[in-house]
Write a structure and sequence with these properties.
mainly beta, globular
Length: 767
């Protein structure tokens, strides 16, 4: 829900009421303070034009944009001057603005309204400065980057009726003194980092109509007497760590229009009296440990526009009482135990905009009426048991932005009409039984930037009929065959391309270098032949490259390694933004974590979370027929977390430079023809948790020190007849003292000789 904006109401009121003051000029010191503030802003943003009307040649700052003055008769001054009482300075600066630049404004003690929202202000709230503004009625510092805590001077401004500090980086506890602001009608502290409990003093704010404490780290229970705030119409406590149940006193909030308790740790049964509020339009209870009484009958007295009962233990068919809520625009019933078909009455909710039914057990086919809505923008039906073919009229839902049908049993072709949804941004049809060798032809200028068709039964050549700006394309786990198409390079904005587990053949084309934004390229388990093109080095943004389980031959090109700058530390702090989708509608903010990227990680296939995919750097060339020495330049790829060169025909010594891979966690060089010692430099690999050098021709002592002392799985050194070391319990020549002349009874002390030779700490560690 979008709360009313009192700023606009106040601004309109002051303009109408104070028109007579326009003939009076503001005090000179206030004019100079405003000019000083403008000068400070220009110093960091020389191209600023939003304050062009603020200039020294104009004698009356009351005529300037974004400034409101009082009538002379209402001024405390004996002169005919008006005074500045309102500054509406949102969106003034496009650059980061240090909070100390606000200092000139604190000289204008007559201020009643100060709006500094959306200015990228950083630093702490100037405590002493705001302490001067004792006449403030309205203060808006939202949508900035302010950090630190709420200063006590701010909660001593007892005339405040409107305080918005939302969407900053404020932290610490909410001050108990906040209860002194007894005239507050709106308090917004959401989207910060506040912690600990909600202070009981907040119950003193009896005039409150809107309270937003959502998206923080608040803990403990909701104050039991919160129902005493009887004027509340908007209450948002969602996305915190609040515990306990829904307080019974909330029954007294008869004016409640919107209640958000989503995403906490609340427990207990959902009270059905919540549906007795006649004015209630938005109710978000999902993502807690609350439970729904499936035996109780609900007869709502409200007409809801938004409802979330995600993961609330709903069982059986989708509740029939929801059919009475024909005004619903947002409905989230995901992560329950709902089963049965998609209700026809729900498909005919043509006002419905956002529908989430994922992670249930719903079945049968989708009704065609579902896609006749002109309002539907998000449809998430992932991980159910829906089956049958996708409706041919799916393209009639012209305003769809997000369509997630993955993890079902849909079969048949993709309807061609889906390409008519020009605004579609995210499309996930993965993990179904869809099949065809003809793909829809999307408009090259369409908005689709994430498309996942993986784990189906598609066949034929690799399709390329996608919008030119698509960023993520997942086609793995199908039956595509033939060579990689040359026109794949027209998709030049691709960041993730998955084609693993298909039947793709031929050579890797040199033209892949034209997709220069690629960060993830997965061609694992195909039938690719030939050598690794040196031109792949032009893909300087690559973070994950998986060419494993193909038939690649030749060498690992030195040029190829030298230019993989995406795997060097200079880019580790950047994020691509292709793994998580955050969508904001008029009713709720929703984050979509897209499917995991499956890689061979530490000897096992593992999914890399979409939330953290930008933290992973992998190079997997295993299970090919590569035959060369390992390039020493691989050691420059210091961001690598996994390097797998196993099951090839690599020869020569292991480069000591691999000891420079400071972030590597998994290193697999097994099943090659490598010789010589394991480099002592491996003792520098402090993140190493898996090392496999088995089935080579390695000799010498396994290095001692650092993480190498924990690499003691003998299987990972097997079939290297020349290795020795405590890790495999094979002593090295020279480690044992000359055999003493022992009497017969001394033979029983042989373990103690080994103990002396190896050192007490090492032997104990091996038990």
């Amino acid at each position: 829900m979008v709360m009313a904006n009192p700023t606009l109401l106040l601004q309109s009121f002051f303009f109408f009421f104070l028109l007579p003051c326009l003939s009076s000029s503001c005090p000179e010191y206030q004019k100079q303070a405003l000019l000083q503030f403008k000068s400070s802003i220009l110093a960091i943003n020389p191209s600023l034009h939003t304050l062009d009307s603020w200039n020294s040649s104009s004698s009356n700052c009351c005529l300037w944009d974004k400034v409101t003055c009082s009538s002379p008769s209402n001024s405390n001054s004996t002169s005919t001057s008006s005074v500045v009482i309102g500054l509406y300075l949102s969106y003034v600066s496009e650059q980061h603005m240090p909070s100390n630049l606000l200092a000139p404004l604190f000289l204008i003690r007559s201020l009643r309204v100060l709006d500094l929202s959306w200015n990228s202000i950083n630093g702490q709230i100037p405590a002493l400065g705001f302490g001067n503004l004792s006449n403030l009625v309205h203060l808006d510092l939202s949508m900035n980057s302010i950090n630190g805590s709420i200063p006590l001077q701010l909660v001593q401004l007892k005339k405040l009726q409107y305080l918005d500090l939302g969407s900053n980086r404020l932290s610490g506890e909410l001050p108990e003194e906040i209860g002194n602001l007894t005239k507050l009608q709106r308090l917004s502290l959401g989207s910060n980092k506040f912690s600990n409990g909600i202070p009981s003093s907040i119950l003193h704010l009896r005039e409150l109509e809107e309270l937003d404490l959502g998206k923080n780290s608040l803990s403990m229970e909701i104050p039991s007497d919160i129902g005493n705030l009887s004027n509340l119409s908007y209450l948002s406590l969602g996305k915190n760590k609040l515990t306990g149940g829904v307080p019974a006193s909330m029954q007294k909030l008869n004016k409640l229009n919107s209640l958000d308790l989503e995403g906490n740790l609340l427990t207990g049964e959902i009270p059905f009296w919540l549906f007795d509020f006649k004015d209630l339009q938005y109710l978000y209870l999902g993502g807690n440990n609350l439970t729904w009484n499936n035996n109780m009958k609900v007869v709502p007295k409200c007409r809801l526009l938004g409802l979330s009962l995600r993961s609330c233990g709903l069982q059986g068919d989708i509740p029939e009482w929801i059919s009475t809520q024909t005004n619903l625009s947002y409905l989230d019933l995901s992560m329950n135990q709902l089963h049965g078909p998609f209700p026809q009455w729900l498909a005919e909710f043509h006002i419905l905009s956002d529908l989430f039914l994922s992670h249930n057990k719903l079945s049968a086919s989708l009704p065609t009426a579902l896609f006749q809505s002109f309002q539907l923008s998000i449809l998430a039906l992932s991980h159910n048991n829906f089956s049958g073919e996708l409706p041919e009229n799916i393209g009639d839902a012209k305003f769809l932005l997000i369509l997630m049908l993955d993890g079902n049993n849909f079969s048949g072709p993709i309807p061609q009409s889906i390409s008519q949804i020009s605004g579609l941004v995210l499309l996930d049809l993965s993990h179904n039984r869809l099949s065809d060798n003809i793909f829809p032809v999307f408009d090259p200028q369409a908005n689709l930037w994430y498309a996942d068709f993986s784990s189906n039964q598609f066949s034929g050549e690799v399709p390329t009929t996608f919008p030119l700006d698509i960023k993520t394309l997942a086609l793995g786990g199908n039956k595509f065959s033939g060579a990689l198409p040359s026109n794949l390079t027209k998709l030049r904005n691709l960041e993730l391309l998955e084609l693993q587990d298909n039947n793709i053949s031929g050579e890797l084309p040199n033209t892949l270098l034209q997709i220069s934004h690629l960060r993830v390229l997965n061609l694992r388990n195909n039938s690719l032949q030939g050598s690794i093109p040196k031109t792949l080095s032009n893909l300087q943004n690559l973070r994950i490259l998986d060419l494993s389980s193909n038939n690649l031959t030749g060498e690992i090109p030195i040029e190829f390694v030298n230019h993989l700058t995406g795997m060097t530390p200079n880019l580790t702090s950047q994020t691509s933004g292709f793994s998580v989708v955050t969508f904001s509608s008029n009713f709720f903010n929703t984050e979509f974590a897209v499917n995991e990227l499956i890689v061979n990680w530490k000897k096992y296939k593992q999914g890399l979370s979409s939330h953290y995919i930008d933290m992973y750097f992998l190079l997997d060339l295993s299970n090919n027929q590569l035959s060369s020495e390992i390039p020493a330049s691989l050691g420059t790829l210091k961001a690598l977390k996994m390097l797998n060169l196993s099951f090839n025909k690599l020869f020569g010594k292991i480069p000591a430079s691999l000891g420079d891979l400071q972030n590597v966690e998994g290193l697999d060089l097994s099943h090659n023809k490598l010789s010589g010692p394991i480099p002592f430099a491996f003792t520098k690999l402090q993140q190493l948790t898996t090392l496999d050098v088995s089935n080579n021709k390695l000799t010498g002592q396994i290095p001692i020190g650092g993480q190498m002392n924990t690499m003691a799985d003998q299987n990972f050194y097997a079939n290297n007849s020349g290795l020795c070391g405590f890790q495999i319990r094979v002593p090295c020549p020279g480690d044992l003292p000359p055999a003493p002349k022992l009497q017969e009874h001394d033979n029983k002390k042989e373990p103690w000789i080994l103990l002396e030779a190896w050192g007490l700490d090492i032997l104990l560690a091996s038990y």
